[in-house]
């Protein structure tokens, strides 16, 4: 693919990012905050979890659509774990909403919602761990950094665990509550640690960076809110009841991040697949040139292979014409220039070196 086309794609991706961040995330985030403030002022807790249920349901549909629309893409199919995890969390949130809106009562704790939530940790942890292993395949993350992150992420769960066992506990009655709280706490530790490590080591040049920023933001927001909420439930229940709307809004913002992450991923694979199809057709075109000439050097600008920009020579010794034409293009170019050597094997080392040195001198770049 030409450099000019890559630049065009980069601008397209940048535009999509701007649209996503300012037109989608900020608008919905503001709406979430306003909705929760209104619910807080009206003292109506029945609908307080509705936004989370809607966002998780939308994320589930988005993940399923991505998987079904790219059945042969191995990387995309890895998102099946995300789909399962988000679906389970949606079912958990839906059960809370059903109790509050349809039945008009508080959801029991622990109840069926907690079962779905705990089950959802398994696929999400597997997906996040595999992603961490991929990023850290060359060992770029030091063991000391991993230890520090895990230690910091463990502070609140350890405090809440100590607080639980420092009180009088009736294990016969409270055992399900303790088990679910413990699994949730330490599941949050794993997800939070992995998310922070992934976020700090994302390759800045990777076009998927915004997807990963949003995905890790989802996990970081959700897990931190979980940890604070569970700790507050043990330490000060009165404080928790007064600030319930705040934590619900935080969860809703986290679920907005996963929805935006999946939406961005879908738009990005669309752009890349379109470019891949065009790239393949261009390769076929270049193969025709390579078959016709013993030595073919093509210079293209503005993403189009114009006839007057095609340089051909059957005489491997005569590169003066090539140099003159390249010189003309460099002077008149408004964009970056891509030079494709279709049949490099027909050039001797000295001749290749001569051309590259000429280009380096004319473009003042590192070739």
Automatic annotation (TrEMBL):
The chain crosses the membrane at residues 20-41, 47-69, 81-99, 111-132, 144-166, 178-200, 212-235, 247-266. The keyword Transmembrane applies. Keywords: Membrane, Transmembrane, Transmembrane helix. This is Uncharacterized protein. It comes from Candidatus Nitrosocosmicus oleophilus. The lineage of its organism: Archaea, Nitrososphaerota, Nitrososphaeria, Nitrososphaerales, Nitrososphaeraceae.
């Amino acid at each position: 693919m030409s450099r000019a086309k890559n630049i065009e794609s980069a601008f397209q991706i940048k535009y999509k990012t701007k649209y996503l961040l300012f037109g989608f995330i900020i608008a919905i985030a503001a709406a979430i905050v306003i909705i929760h403030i209104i619910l807080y002022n009206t003292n109506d807790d029945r609908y307080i979890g509705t936004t989370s249920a809607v966002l998780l349901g939308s994320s589930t549909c988005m993940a399923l659509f991505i998987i079904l629309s790219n059945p042969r893409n191995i990387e995309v199919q890895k998102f099946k774990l995300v789909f399962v995890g988000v679906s389970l969390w949606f079912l958990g949130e839906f059960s809370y909403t059903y109790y509050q809106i349809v039945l008009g009562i508080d959801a029991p704790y622990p109840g069926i919602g907690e079962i779905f939530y705990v089950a959802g940790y398994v696929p999400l942890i597997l997906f996040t761990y595999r992603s961490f292993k991929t990023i850290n395949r060359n060992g770029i993350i030091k063991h000391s950094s991993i230890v520090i992150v895990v230690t910091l992420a463990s502070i609140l769960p350890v405090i809440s665990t100590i607080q639980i066992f420092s009180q009088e506990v009736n294990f016969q009655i409270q055992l399900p509550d303790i088990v679910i709280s413990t699994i949730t706490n330490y599941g949050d530790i794993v997800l939070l640690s992995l998310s922070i490590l992934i976020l700090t080591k994302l390759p800045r040049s990777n076009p998927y960076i915004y997807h990963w920023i949003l995905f890790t933001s989802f996990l970081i927001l959700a897990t931190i809110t979980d940890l604070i909420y569970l700790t507050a439930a043990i330490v000060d229940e009165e404080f928790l009841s007064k600030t319930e709307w705040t934590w619900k809004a935080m969860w809703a913002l986290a679920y907005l991040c996963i929805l935006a992450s999946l939406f961005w991923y879908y738009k990005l694979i669309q752009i890349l697949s379109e470019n891949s199809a065009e790239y393949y057709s261009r390769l076929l075109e270049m193969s025709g040139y390579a078959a016709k000439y013993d030595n073919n050097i093509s210079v293209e600008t503005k993403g189009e292979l114009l006839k007057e920009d095609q340089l051909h020579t059957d005489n491997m010794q005569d590169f003066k014409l090539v140099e003159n034409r390249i010189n003309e293009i460099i002077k008149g170019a408004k964009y970056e220039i891509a030079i494709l050597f279709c049949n490099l094997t027909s050039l001797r080392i000295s001749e290749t070196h001569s051309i590259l040195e000429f280009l380096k001198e004319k473009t003042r770049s590192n070739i």
